[in-house]
Amino acid sequence: MGHVFVVPGDITRFACDAWLLPTDCTLHLAQGWLSSVDGLRAARDALGGEADDLRTEHTVALALPRWDGPRPVLTAVPFHGVRDARDVGDRVGAGLREASRVARDTHSARGRPLVAMPLFGGAGGGGDAFRGTLVRAALETARATDADVDVALVLREERDLAQAQRLRRQEEDRWWPGLDDALRERSATLAGHAGRGRLVPFIGAGVSISAGLPTWKGLVERLTTERLSPADRTEFGTLDVLDQAEILERGYADRAAFAAAVVGHTSADRYGIAPALLSGLPCREAVTLNYDQLYELAGEALGKRTAVLPEDSAALGERWLLKLHGTVTRPESIVLTRRDYLAFRSGREALSALAKALLLTRHLLFVGFGLTDDHFHEVVHDVRAVRPRRPGDPKLGTALMLSSSTLRRRLWGDDLDLVALDDGGALTDVADQARQMEIFLDHLLAHTDAGPGHLLDDRFAMLLTPPERRLADRLRRVAAEMGDDELSTTAGRAVRDLLDRLGDSARR
Q1: For a tag site, which of 71, 132, 143, 398 has the least CB within 10 Å?
Q2: CB atoms within 10 A of CB 69
Q3: Are 203 and 277 contacting, i.e. CB atoms less than 8 angstroms apart?
Q4: What's 3's DSSP letter?
Q5: CA 439/CA 494 separation, integer angstroms
Q6: 310 preceded by cis ω (within 30°)?
Q7: What confidence score (pLDDT) does residue 98 get?
Q8: Which domains, ranges and CATH numbers included, belong to the chain?
């Protein structure tokens, strides 16, 4: 069956096959959509008789007929505005059905078509006063869509996200039926590390596949197709991967031309599910061997700036990403050939030292990474040398593996907790295994506690339990009784800050 993801971020920069775009029977589009999506106004204005059924409300969903990229599906909310969740449920359901039809006909970078939707009716639709109910309705409507399609509910407001995750946590079996108890337990343990600020994502090329970018092997294959004759390709396959890259580089006029070709194959302006979920975790540090900017783009959509090391200098308290093998924004920094690897050892050892320090002091989560990179092996070797393992010692991290492997477990089992995502061998297709990884990350983010920021926010009052309502009433009385002289004290300001974090600021 299809899975419903809750993804933090900006739907206009999210990699999917089709997405729902709120409108009404007049084809009105909010200025925020028009300014964020290039060509949207022109495409809307070019609609002729195709939109007649939408204008007369004989239908409430219409896919824009000509579009490059994820295809918008106009989905009309009631012209009079949203008065309760029932006003949007059927209409969003119709939009999802139309988007599912479009997505199935579109080549997807994922193994299964993906439809994205925002929260309908919560802003311009007029439903802000009962936002919590809209979040619940959005989840239920998404869950009822086509079983052959996955749906991502893409949310930008922190409290919307917190409520969606809370609702799903209350019914684990219903929202994550494909994860067994063992995988859920592993996810909950990692969520605990994240909540304590100890989790560090180590991001491999597998994370970027959903955005249409290649794995390391796929990158070499693309460059091979461009530069090698069919006669040379057979012998080429017998070479070591670093020597393969060396051969390919020599097929270009110079190093700069080769780097530009690599950048062309590893750049994308839309991020997929995995980068969005990883970027949503409360992690101050992250490490990657990737060249792309997907993690940074996903963070930017959440209002999080990511300092990229070593190019940027991270301010105290700011989150940062260590790019061990370079970045597309500086093609000359890219590490790919054997010469690049050898030069790295002599010129960028400080970066390796930082990665070693993280292995010694944090819990690393390896995602989309096959544990085969030579540089990674050197880092782990040095860590083993300074911290020999003893029985009962915590492991250096957790590696999410697409499939189970007895030999990999022999190699890495003493150092890493290996989590296989092939459902005990039942999932044999790589695309299905990669999707299972995304579902695992979805569970992980949902169980990383974001705090009770909704408690004093009236828009979510209908979702509170009786004890939470009683607590909220007492805190509101405290807020109402605090005088200006009390608020001017250090303790008073601290209490005011706490009340604001619990949602009281939304009431003023």
Answers
A1: 143
A2: 14
A3: no
A4: -
A5: 38
A6: yes
A7: 94
A8: 4-175 (3.40.220.10), 187-212+270-446 (3.40.50.1220), 216-265 (no CATH), 458-507 (no CATH)
CA distances (Å), 349 to each of 193, 320, 325, in order? Answer: 28, 18, 12
How far is Cα 16 from Cα 115, in angstroms, rounded to an integer? 6
For residue 10, give the 3-state DSSP assignment: coil
| Helix extents (H) in 310-398 | 338-347, 349-361, 374-386
Asked whether the predicted pLDDT for residue 311 surpasses 90, the reply is no
Label residues 238-258 b or e (16+ Cβ within 10 Å = b). Answer: eeebeebbbbbbeebeeeeeb
Rounded Cα distance between 468 and 204, Å, is 41
Strand partners, 6: 153
* Residue 398 to residue 418: CA distance in whole angstroms: 6
Name the amino acid, one letter, at 434.
A
Query: Is pLDDT above 80 for 344?
Result: no
pLDDT 10s digits, 247-258: 999 989 899 999
Question: Read out DSSP for 464-491?
Answer: --HHHHHHHHHHHHHHHH--HHHHTSHH
Distance CA 235, CA 239 (A): 7
pLDDT at residue 109, rounded to an integer: 65
pLDDT for 461-491, tens place per residue?
666 778 878 887 788 888 878 888 887 888 8
CA-CA distance, 131 to 128, in Å (whole number)? 5
Structure tokens at 427: 């999932």
Sheet with 61-63, strands from edge to edge, namely: 4-8, 150-155, 114-117, 18-23, 71-76, 61-63
Distance of alpha carbon 158 from alpha carbon 339, whole angstroms: 45
